[in-house]
Fold each of these.
Amino acid sequence: MHSLCHGLLAVHRHRTVLGNNFETLDELTQLLFIFDNFDEIIGPDSGGTYLTQWTTKWTAIKGAQSYFDKITEELIDPDKLVSPGGSFVSAIGSAYKRYAATLLGSNRLDFAHQQKLVFELLSDRAIGDSVSSGVKYVMVDEYQDTNYIQEQLLLRLASQSKNICVVGDEDQSLYRFRGATVRNILEFPDRVPGCQTIKLITNYRSHRQIVAAYDRWMASATWTSNGRRFRFNKTIKPDPKAEHPEYPSIFCISGQDADDEAERFADLVQFLKRENVIQDYSQVALLLHSVRLDHSGPFIDALDKKGIPAFCPRARAYFENEEVRLMVACLA
């Protein structure tokens, strides 16, 4: 999506506020941009907090970044956020206006503004019709992970051909923290009346017991509220042609605390290897709520005590890795 937007901006840059050789910031350089222009965008602390909410500069930068992206991606008018009284919403709205002015004034874009500029281009009837007339088909994978402005862009690109195909799974909507909304795929039939819906209900990867357990668990919840649905009606089935060996594909390990649970898990891995159920430790994967060290640490330690190698490169935050800390120290 970002590559597509960059290409359209490169062609139609003269119709935008961008100058030649504009720069697009990724998530990290966006944070650093706010840092470099902190006083101008965020401003001084008031009563010990920044923007009435955050107590340190870095939390203010990360928090503001999330709100700035959301305001842009949801096409919210920041003027409607600003009001007298010193509320958090008003402070964010004012900071956003300063951020957008500073960003575009330095001939830079973040990913959200990149999409917004393309949206504005395509909203111009003359430009939009010209661009969309050259698009014969729009095909989108992982549609459940698109956000509001991306949906608007895609529908505009398909406005001439009327040929748009989206593929996704609302059960795998994982990126709400990045602004994605599962409503895009759930409400797609309303956005494109008369579209054909094809349900892909066969799971070709998993053991039939896993598929059955997953389907029972999902069916046990209520997926409608106030007349709105949050999941399509479907029954997932295993591949009927696959061989499903008879073994306990689902079982539960529990412990009195995190350390006890980790030791029991390490015992299981050791047992699987000793009994030749697995040939190599790399055949075992552990999925955690987070790979940060406070979650993964007990498991890494328990495996290490039994001489079982574990690979978890993101257990530490980037700047907590020893080699990175040494490089930062050298630069400092």
Amino acid sequence: MIELEEAEMLEAQKLRVAYDREAIYELIIENLGEARLTTIQELKKELQDFISEYIGEVTDGRYHKVEVGDDLSLRLFSQEKNEFIVPSGVLSQGTLDQIYLVARFALLKIFSHANHRPFVILDDPFHSFDAKRKERTRVIVEELSKDFQILLLTHSDEYDKWGVVRELT
């Protein structure tokens, strides 16, 4: 009987430790969630401003304003509809790819404030773009190259006029 009581006490102690750990984990998750929201709130304006600089070029002048959600989703202001719209399902995949390319550069710029001209490697990112979209992207990449060191890796010679060409063998 004593052995059973000791075993029960030991199991009760293990259960208390497990409940304490659960409470600690719940507190950590809650605090991480709050920190995530606070961080996003602090970044939203900067992200919106950066992406808005390029959105007109990306969308061929159809959109000029971006709104970043609390989950980092993007919405574009449609002058035609006089409201913000969710771009997926409305814009082509190529346009979405361009928007998210600019968004990635925006995040990189925000997170690399200490590093002037951070280094970015792009590995054949525009192979699915048509000629007009590639030209608009070239203008954007050229503008971004003022703030970033951009290395574009590709097998195609159509990018030769985008910058200095170095063949890797």
